[in-house]
Amino acid sequence: MTIVLLALGVQGVLGFVRARRAREIGIAGARWIWVERSPEPAPVHFSAIRPFDLPAAPRRAEARIFVDRRFALWVNGSRAGTGGQSPGDALARFDVAPLLRAGRNVVAVVAESPRGIGGILFALDTGGGSPAVVSDASWSVDPAGREIASSGPRRAVVLGRPPMHPWGFPRAR
After folding, report:
1. Percent of the chain residues past pLDDT 90, beyond the cut
2. CA distances from 110 to 21, 107, 138 (A)
3. Beta-bridge partner residues of 33
């Protein structure tokens, strides 16, 4: 019984530490997502799409993103940035306030990996204290990579929450 209570206590402390670290780097609530789990290494290129509503256009908004291997970030049909990371790299950050508006908005990440293995971690900070949008099961994916303006046909696969092998926590900067 003592061992069970000790294990539960350790899990609670680890959960608290993980949540605090996620808040510190601005990805609280975000999950690693991808198009699908594939046992065979093969190139993949797809879009991950997330529509969302805002009550007003934010004065400031920063997209924080980590994609293992390469990505293009789109907001409301406009390219907001490109990049790519490997485990241990920092989050990419993009000012997306000029691209957001009151009402319906759409964020899309066009991702690719030469081996088919990868992950997307995303958070949109609009200054409200916690991210307005995070990568999670609410994202849709289009394996053909054609849809960047509306929801794709399938749900994203949630791989887990940070820290997670092989990425751990991305560096803040």
Report:
1. 68
2. 27, 10, 16
3. 120, 158
Could you give phi then psi for residue 131, rounded to 5 degrees? Answer: -55, 140
- pTM, 2 dp: 0.89
d(Cα 147, Cα 97) in Å, to the nearest integer? 22
What is the per-residue pLDDT for 61?
98
Longest CA span, the chain: 57
The neighbour count for residue 81, using CB atoms within 10 Å, is: 16
Return the structure tokens found at 100. Answer: 């957001």
Check if the beta carbon of residue 123 is closer than 8 Å to that of residue 28: yes
- Please enumerate in sequence order all residues whose Cβ is within 8 A of that of 151, keeping only pairs 6 or more positions apart, or say none: 49, 51, 140
| Burial (CB count <10 Å: 0-12, 13-18, 19+), residue 22 | buried
Q: What is the DSSP-derived secondary structure letter of residue 57? A: -
Judged against a pLDDT cut of 60, whether residue 11 lies above it is answered with: no
- For residue 19, give every residue at least 6 positions away whose Cβ sits within 8 Å of its Cβ, in sequence order, or none: 28
The four Cα atoms 163, 42, 110, 132 give a dihedral, to 10 degrees, of: -20
At 61, list the tokens. 């908004």
